[in-house]
Amino acid sequence: MNKPVERISRNIVRILGLNPGPFTLQGTNTYLVGSGPRRTLIDTGDGEQPEYFVNLRNTLGASLIDRILLTHHHGDHVGGISQILSSPMVTPSCTVYKHQPVDATHKDVSEGQVFRVDDVELTALLTPGHTADHVSFVMSEDGVKYLATGDMVLGQGTSIVESLGPYMQSLGRALALKPDVLLPGHGPVVSGQDADDNIKAVQVIDGYIKHRAMRERQIEDVLRNRVPDDNGSGWSEEMITLVIYPDITDPRVRRAAQNNVHLHLVKLESEGRAHRVDGRWLAD
Ligand SMILES: [Zn+2]
Known about the structure:
The protein has 2 domains: 5-191, Ribonuclease Z/Hydroxyacylglutathione hydrolase-like (Metallo-beta-lactamase, Chain A); 212-283, Arc Repressor Mutant, subunit A, CATH 1.10.10.10. It has 7 helices and 13 strands. Helix 5 packs across helix 7 and helix 6 crosses helix 7. It is elongated and about 70 Å long. It has helices at 50-60, 75-78, 81-85, 164-176, 200-225, 237-244, 251-270; strands spanning 5-7, 12-16, 29-33, 38-42, 64-69, 90-97, 114-117, 120-126, 135-141, 144-150, 181-184, 274-277, 280-283. Residues 72, 74, 130, 151 line the site of zinc ion. Residues 27-186 form the Metallo-beta-lactamase domain. One of its GO terms (biological process) is secondary metabolite biosynthetic process. Keywords: Hydrolase, Metal-binding, Zinc. Pfam families: Lactamase_B, WHD_BLACT.
């Protein structure tokens, strides 16, 4: 059961975007940070759910939003901006921050940039891959390290990726931070420890890395060690997909799987481990 408004910590409240769907899980998570009169909001929902704005206003009480931090440009994260900015919920100086801003009124976010809200320090971590402009935010409160992951890591399932090389590097950076709690853009907040005392937040990131690494090994193995059906002119992405994902029958799922294979091949190509000739892939 997802509560539309849920307190995560002294300074962090999750407010659900109320836009559930096949690509957004239970909807987009937005996070209101701070405990004083001027708060920071991470992401804004899709802008099409009136109830979201009611919940946001009720959560704010007498406080106001002074800063909006955006994880990336996708509509379900930025759609609420104009309605929030034109509402009485914001201070006159409320500023929107986004890496690689396209809107001239937005301010850029750079690697390591620090934002302070009451006794919380938010630090920007550039994490491209899901999109080129993707940013995560690290927060420390009472010795607990929170990582607002946007769409890099979700509370469940796997994320859709634009560019796999940068994505894997971003996951590696997130893992190195050893966060205690993940505040994902979709799905449940990840916190606590498993039965073996492993930190779940770290386990989830590690699982993302291992899953992608396993697929990469499988694909490289096909290119290196198996002979294509047509005897030698190389592997089409379709053929590789059939080998790696033999059980997928739904054409939409197969298309998504083939896109994953494509992303891995492009990464291998950029690392000099594979090349293509006339749309057919060969190992280097
Ligand atoms: Zn997204």
